[in-house]
Amino acid sequence: MNAYGKVIKYGDNVDTDVIIPARYLNTTDKKELASHCMEDIDPDFKNKVEPGDIIVAGRNFGCGSSREHAPIVIKESGISLVIAKSFARIFYRNAINIGLAIIECPECIDEMDEGDKVRVDFDKGEIVNETKNKTYKASPFPPFIQTIIQNGGLINSIKNNAFGG
Protein backbone atom coordinates (compact mmCIF):
# COMPACT_ATOMS: atom_id res chain seq x y z
CA MET A 1 0.00 0.00 0.00
CA ASN A 2 1.35 3.44 -0.96
CA ALA A 3 0.44 7.12 -0.84
CA TYR A 4 1.77 10.05 -2.83
CA GLY A 5 0.89 13.72 -2.63
CA LYS A 6 1.86 17.24 -1.72
CA VAL A 7 2.19 18.33 1.89
CA ILE A 8 -0.34 20.57 3.59
CA LYS A 9 1.26 21.46 6.92
CA TYR A 10 -0.12 22.38 10.34
CA GLY A 11 1.31 22.75 13.84
CA ASP A 12 0.63 21.16 17.20
CA ASN A 13 -2.74 20.51 18.88
CA VAL A 14 -4.98 20.66 15.82
CA ASP A 15 -8.24 19.76 17.52
CA THR A 16 -11.40 18.21 16.14
CA ASP A 17 -13.27 21.54 16.35
CA VAL A 18 -10.71 23.03 13.97
CA ILE A 19 -10.81 19.99 11.67
CA ILE A 20 -14.62 20.26 11.42
CA PRO A 21 -16.26 23.07 13.38
CA ALA A 22 -19.26 21.88 15.44
CA ARG A 23 -21.52 24.50 13.82
CA TYR A 24 -21.59 22.33 10.67
CA LEU A 25 -22.51 19.05 12.33
CA ASN A 26 -26.20 19.47 11.51
CA THR A 27 -25.81 17.45 8.30
CA THR A 28 -24.74 13.91 7.51
CA ASP A 29 -23.72 14.80 3.94
CA LYS A 30 -20.01 13.96 3.82
CA LYS A 31 -19.31 16.25 0.84
CA GLU A 32 -20.98 19.18 2.61
CA LEU A 33 -19.03 18.48 5.80
CA ALA A 34 -15.76 18.16 3.86
CA SER A 35 -16.33 21.58 2.30
CA HIS A 36 -15.76 23.00 5.80
CA CYS A 37 -12.72 20.88 6.68
CA MET A 38 -9.97 22.96 8.31
CA GLU A 39 -11.70 26.24 7.44
CA ASP A 40 -11.10 27.83 10.87
CA ILE A 41 -7.34 27.21 10.74
CA ASP A 42 -6.90 27.35 6.94
CA PRO A 43 -9.74 29.11 5.07
CA ASP A 44 -8.17 28.18 1.71
CA PHE A 45 -7.88 24.44 2.50
CA LYS A 46 -10.83 23.36 0.34
CA ASN A 47 -9.38 25.23 -2.65
CA LYS A 48 -5.83 23.91 -2.36
CA VAL A 49 -6.38 20.27 -1.42
CA GLU A 50 -6.12 17.78 -4.27
CA PRO A 51 -6.86 14.05 -4.19
CA GLY A 52 -3.94 12.21 -2.62
CA ASP A 53 -2.52 15.16 -0.69
CA ILE A 54 -0.97 14.53 2.71
CA ILE A 55 -1.50 16.48 5.92
CA VAL A 56 1.66 16.84 7.99
CA ALA A 57 1.24 18.08 11.55
CA GLY A 58 2.88 18.38 14.94
CA ARG A 59 1.96 16.81 18.25
CA ASN A 60 -1.48 15.74 19.46
CA PHE A 61 -3.26 15.91 16.10
CA GLY A 62 -7.00 15.29 16.47
CA CYS A 63 -7.27 16.21 20.14
CA GLY A 64 -10.63 17.36 21.46
CA SER A 65 -13.87 15.48 21.06
CA SER A 66 -14.31 11.82 20.20
CA ARG A 67 -16.50 12.46 17.16
CA GLU A 68 -15.70 10.44 14.05
CA HIS A 69 -16.57 13.41 11.84
CA ALA A 70 -12.98 14.70 12.03
CA PRO A 71 -11.25 11.82 10.21
CA ILE A 72 -14.28 11.40 7.93
CA VAL A 73 -14.05 14.98 6.60
CA ILE A 74 -10.29 14.75 6.17
CA LYS A 75 -10.65 11.59 4.09
CA GLU A 76 -13.66 12.96 2.18
CA SER A 77 -11.72 16.12 1.30
CA GLY A 78 -9.22 13.99 -0.66
CA ILE A 79 -6.41 13.65 1.87
CA SER A 80 -4.80 10.21 1.54
CA LEU A 81 -2.71 10.27 4.70
CA VAL A 82 -1.98 12.25 7.85
CA ILE A 83 1.58 12.16 9.18
CA ALA A 84 2.05 13.68 12.63
CA LYS A 85 4.46 13.72 15.53
CA SER A 86 1.65 12.18 17.58
CA PHE A 87 -2.13 11.69 17.49
CA ALA A 88 -4.81 11.92 20.12
CA ARG A 89 -5.62 8.27 20.83
CA ILE A 90 -9.35 8.47 20.04
CA PHE A 91 -8.62 10.23 16.74
CA TYR A 92 -6.05 7.54 15.90
CA ARG A 93 -8.57 4.75 16.37
CA ASN A 94 -11.40 6.65 14.65
CA ALA A 95 -9.14 7.27 11.65
CA ILE A 96 -8.41 3.57 11.26
CA ASN A 97 -12.07 2.68 11.77
CA ILE A 98 -13.13 4.90 8.85
CA GLY A 99 -10.16 3.99 6.65
CA LEU A 100 -8.01 7.14 6.88
CA ALA A 101 -4.31 6.28 6.79
CA ILE A 102 -2.25 7.84 9.59
CA ILE A 103 1.41 7.52 10.54
CA GLU A 104 3.44 8.86 13.45
CA CYS A 105 6.89 10.05 12.42
CA PRO A 106 8.19 12.76 14.76
CA GLU A 107 11.59 13.02 13.07
CA CYS A 108 10.31 13.99 9.62
CA ILE A 109 7.76 16.68 10.52
CA ASP A 110 10.11 19.61 11.16
CA GLU A 111 11.95 18.98 7.87
CA MET A 112 8.81 18.94 5.68
CA ASP A 113 7.40 22.12 4.22
CA GLU A 114 4.06 23.03 2.67
CA GLY A 115 4.04 21.87 -0.95
CA ASP A 116 6.78 19.21 -0.62
CA LYS A 117 6.05 16.03 -2.59
CA VAL A 118 5.98 12.95 -0.37
CA ARG A 119 5.75 9.24 -1.15
CA VAL A 120 4.93 6.65 1.52
CA ASP A 121 5.31 2.88 1.42
CA PHE A 122 3.16 1.49 4.24
CA ASP A 123 4.61 -2.03 3.94
CA LYS A 124 8.15 -0.81 4.56
CA GLY A 125 7.25 2.07 6.87
CA GLU A 126 9.19 4.36 4.53
CA ILE A 127 8.44 8.05 4.02
CA VAL A 128 10.30 9.77 1.20
CA ASN A 129 10.29 13.54 0.84
CA GLU A 130 11.02 13.67 -2.88
CA THR A 131 11.35 17.46 -2.86
CA LYS A 132 14.22 17.32 -0.37
CA ASN A 133 15.50 13.85 -1.28
CA LYS A 134 15.22 12.61 2.33
CA THR A 135 13.97 9.26 3.57
CA TYR A 136 12.51 8.51 7.00
CA LYS A 137 11.47 5.33 8.77
CA ALA A 138 8.20 4.85 10.59
CA SER A 139 6.51 1.77 11.95
CA PRO A 140 4.96 -0.15 9.05
CA PHE A 141 1.22 -0.79 9.20
CA PRO A 142 0.38 -4.30 10.33
CA PRO A 143 -1.42 -6.25 7.59
CA PHE A 144 -4.80 -6.09 9.36
CA ILE A 145 -4.65 -2.27 9.53
CA GLN A 146 -3.74 -2.13 5.84
CA THR A 147 -6.74 -4.35 5.14
CA ILE A 148 -9.03 -1.98 7.03
CA ILE A 149 -7.70 1.08 5.19
CA GLN A 150 -7.77 -0.63 1.77
CA ASN A 151 -11.41 -1.60 2.34
CA GLY A 152 -12.38 1.92 3.30
CA GLY A 153 -12.83 1.26 7.01
CA LEU A 154 -13.64 -1.37 9.57
CA ILE A 155 -17.33 -1.79 8.69
CA ASN A 156 -16.52 -2.28 4.99
CA SER A 157 -13.81 -4.79 5.94
CA ILE A 158 -16.34 -6.79 7.93
CA LYS A 159 -18.96 -6.58 5.16
CA ASN A 160 -16.36 -7.74 2.62
CA ASN A 161 -15.22 -10.56 4.91
CA ALA A 162 -11.71 -9.13 4.49
CA PHE A 163 -10.38 -10.94 7.53
CA GLY A 164 -11.32 -14.36 6.21
CA GLY A 165 -13.68 -15.31 8.98
Could you give a short description of this structure?
With 165 residues, the chain is an alpha/beta fold. It has eight helices and seven strands. The protein has helices at 16-19, 30-34, 45-48, 69-76, 89-98, 106-109, 143-150, 154-159, and strands at 2-9, 54-57, 81-84, 101-104, 117-121, 126-129, 134-137.
Given helix and strand content, the structural type is alpha/beta
- Strand order of the main beta sheet, please? 4-3-2-1-5-6-7
What does the radius of gyration come to?
A: 15 Å
Residues in β-strands, percent:
15-25%
Task: Enumerate how many helices there are, as a single number.
Answer: 8
Please bin the fraction of helical residues: 25-40%
User: Main β-sheet, in a few words?
Assistant: 7 strands, mixed
Termini distance?
Answer: 22 Å
Instruction: Provide mean pLDDT, rounded.
Output: 93
Give the ordered list of helices and strands: EHHHEHEHEHEEEHH
Molecular shape: globular
Oligomer: single chain
Weakly predicted, low-confidence segments: none
The count of β-strands is 7
Description:
This protein is α/β, with parallel strands linked by helices. About 30% of the residues lie in helices and about 20% in strands. It is built from eight helices and seven strands, in the order βαααβαβαβαβββαα. It has a seven-stranded mixed β-sheet. The protein starts with a strand and ends in a 6-residue tail after the last helix. The mean pLDDT is about 95.
